[in-house]
Design goal:
This protein has a seven-stranded mixed sheet with strand order 4-10-9-8-7-5-6, with helices on both faces. It has a four-stranded antiparallel sheet with strand order 13-14-17-16, covered by helices on one side. The protein is 32% helix and 17% strand. It is globular. It is an alpha/beta fold. The protein starts with 53 loop residues before the first helix and ends in a 14-residue tail after the last strand. The structure holds 4'-deoxy-4'-aminopyridoxal-5'-phosphate.
Length: 489
């Protein structure tokens, strides 16, 4: 076993201050004094060809399970993964980094042993990698959470009392709902970006409390449409408000840049960023985070505990009570490093597939693609659509069972938005949609298969016989997915 991995140094510069590792429960020694020469990077080598060269950066990183074959009614076929907006597969580089980190896995911030110091150093280096990934500024905090939902729960606990929160009805429930303790100004689903801008401008003029927070998604999980964060950040700041950006649907596809956006906070999830190891991130201005209530009371979050009271730590440690998810952090850092390195290739791949998907679906009669701002909006690879006369739940079951395609159906935890986009005064249209979403696990063949399958459904109906039961749609005969598979453990 090689204890000190010899990887190439990270090529990214660091624009922010990193916090020294927290001392154990507020006492004892501080930062681990492990030589950093060998600790530069969360390892990034597998899953790419000719690492280090420009050619490698132009190649697409490999995801685990890319060759997955799945059972269908017509026999086994390659899995067409069009469900990245829900969760992405893991990157090979993530698995490599995790495997390597597990070789010396030990406690974080608590041990004097070599393995503990190494693990602790890696945890903080993962923070640095993530800080670079989000374009953090000097003094910003990067807190490891579990998910985007968790990040907003944390931020909502740390907001100053009597903050007013401004949020559009188009948001995912995780971003729409956690502000219940605060006065919340719910803005309607806008028709255009200018409309959104005007609605927010008006609302910020009308509600003038001392602390105000605007919350917007950088990309919609229903339509994939990208919001111009910089423009909305400028507006918020002109009114003296702060802005928090939900980057759950952006992190795997486009650059997050707190500094360039001039945004105050950003949140995203590892499981949507090719690192499904239970870590997410909240990054941004440290003042409210340092003054607000610690998210998790406990070990690691304190500076001193006496009979008289508790002095809580500041910095990320304040909100990371308990033993941190170091493997999740390493996984996420590895994903961030890989995504940054291959950003152009990733965008080119996804743009190609998205264009093919959208143009293909546009040709199918009765298919309607959902959109907030219209056809020409900038978007990531998320396409929600309805098929005239077909229940979306059946469409997604047919795509899976008859064609081996993975998509979602429903309202995607954005009920207000989907209800608004599918609004039908005559009650003749479906109330849910199908969502196909693209990522590194998607192929052109998978996209073409989806388009052909939907066209076939419209033209000829289903291949199998389906009936609706209380539990949902049921295919006559044996569902090919009901197979015995060995447990992975
Ligand atoms: N925001 C958006 C835009 C999302 O798409 C999602 C997940 N669908 C979330 C927030 C919540 O993410 P998580 O489930 O990882 O907390």
């Amino acid at each position: 076993m090689s204890v000190l991995p010899s990887t190439h140094p990270s090529t990214h510069s660091t624009r922010h201050a990193t916090r020294p590792a927290a001392s154990p429960c507020g006492g004892g020694s501080a930062a681990p004094a492990v030589r950093t020469r060998a600790l530069h990077a969360v390892p990034e080598s597998a899953g790419e060809s000719a690492a280090g060269s420009d050619t490698a950066a132009q190649a697409l990183p490999t995801v685990i399970g890319a060759g997955l074959r799945v059972p269908t009614l017509r026999g086994e076929t390659a899995y067409a993964n069009l469900d990245h907006a829900a969760s992405t597969p893991a990157l090979e580089t993530v698995r490599t980094a995790v495997d390597r980190a597990l070789e010396t896995y030990s406690s974080v911030h608590r041990g004097a042993g070599f393995a503990s110091r190494l693990t602790s150093a890696w945890y903080e280096q993962a923070r640095t990698e993530v800080a670079d990934f989000v374009g953090a500024r000097e003094g910003d905090s990067v807190v490891f959470t579990r998910t985007t939902t968790d990040s907003w729960a944390l931020l909502s606990k740390a907001l100053p009392s009597r903050t007013t929160v401004f949020v559009f009805g188009s948001e995912h429930h995780s971003t729409l709902l956690p502000w219940g303790r605060f006065r919340t100004v719910r803005l309607p689903v806008p028709q255009t970006l200018d409309d959104a801008y005007a609605l927010l401008d008006e609302a910020l003029s009308a509600h003038r409390s001392r602390h105000r927070l605007v919350v917007i998604a950088a990309a919609s999980n229903v339509t994939g449409e990208v919001w111009p964060v910089r423009r909305f950040a400028r507006l918020a700041h002109e009114h003296g408000a702060r802005i928090a950006v939900d980057a759950a649907q952006l992190s795997a596809h486009r650059r997050i840049d707190l500094a360039a956006w001039d945004a105050d906070y950003v949140a995203f999830s590892g499981h949507k960023t090719y690192a499904p190891y239970g870590a997410g991130v909240l990054a941004g201005r440290s003042d409210w985070l340092d003054a607000g209530a610690p998210y998790l009371f406990g070990g690691g979050a304190t500076r001193a505990v006496t009979e008289e009271g508790t002095a809580w730590a500041t910095g990320p440690a304040r909100h990371e009570g308990g033993s941190p998810n170091v493997i999740g952090a390493v996984a996420l850092a590895a994903a961030c490093a890989t995504i940054r390195r291959h950003a152009d290739a990733i965008e080119a791949h996804e743009t190609r597939l998205l264009e093919r998907l959208r143009s293909g679906l546009a040709e199918v009669p009765g298919v309607e693609v959902l959109s907030i701002f219209g056809d020409d909006s900038d978007r990531v690879g998320v396409v929600a659509f309805t098929v005239d006369g077909w229940d979306s739940a059946l469409v997604s079951q047919v795509l899976s069972v008859e064609h081996g395609i993975g998509v979602r159906d429903g309202k995607f935890c954005a009920h207000l938005l989907v209800d608004e986009l599918l609004e039908d005064p005559w009650g003749e249209r479906p109330v849910t949609a199908v969502r196909a979403s693209i990522g590194l696990g998607s192929t052109l063949e998978g996209v073409d298969r989806l388009v052909t399958a939907v066209a076939g459904l419209v033209e000829h109906g289903t291949a199998a016989t389906w009936s609706r039961t209380e539990a949902g749609w049921h295919v006559e005969g044996a569902d090919p997915r009901d197979v015995e598979v060995e447990r992975p453990w």
